[in-house]
Amino acid sequence: MLTKVELEQLQASIDGAIQRSKQPERLLSIDEVARRLDISKGQYFKHRLDFTALGLQEVKKGTSVSVRESSLDQLIRKAVERQIDLFKPMAS
């Protein structure tokens, strides 16, 4: 799990990448998303509904599922700004 400092560093890195990037939208595999969040694929699927509730956008390509890179970046930024622990169950 990422610490607050690591999340802030990741956000700064993402902000820089977004400003430099002029490429079209990139789709990430679930493996890439899990790696960027520093969690296992199992943990990703366990928290999948919470992530989508916070704005993570999945795209289906045939039978595979990808995630829009910009929505993952926004999810991380939102978690840092609002100090949301992405891995605690959300209140109903």
What does this structure look like?
- The protein is α+β, with helices and mostly antiparallel strands.
- Helix content is 55%, strand content 13%.
- The chain contains five helices and three strands; from the N terminus they run αβαααββα.
- It has helices at residues 4-20, 30-37, 41-46, 48-53, 69-82, and strands spanning 27-29, 58-61, 64-68.
- A three-stranded antiparallel β-sheet has the order 1-3-2.
- β2 and β3 form a beta hairpin.
- α1 packs across α5 (69-82).
- The longest helix has 17 residues, at 4-20.
- The two termini are 23 Å apart.
- The mean pLDDT is 84.
Question: Mind sketching the topology for me?
Answer:
Layout (H helix, E strand, L loop, with lengths): L3 H17 L6 E3 H8 L3 H6 L1 H6 L4 E4 L2 E5 H14 L10
Antiparallel strand pairs: 1-3, 2-3
Helix pairs in contact: 1-5
**Helix and strand element order:** HEHHHEEH
Quick one: biggest sheet?
A: 3 strands, antiparallel
* Inertia-based shape: globular
Tally of extended strands? 3
Q: What is the CA-based Rg, rounded?
A: 13 Å
Give average pLDDT, whole number: 84
User: Alpha-carbon distance between the termini?
Assistant: 23 Å
The fraction of residues in strands falls at 5-15%
Strand order of the largest sheet: 1-3-2
Number of helices: 5
Helix proportion range: 55-70%
Name the structural class: alpha+beta
Indicate the low-confidence ranges by residue numbers.
none
Task: Give descriptors for this structure.
alpha+beta, three-stranded antiparallel beta sheet, 3 strands, globular, single chain, 92 residues, 55% helix
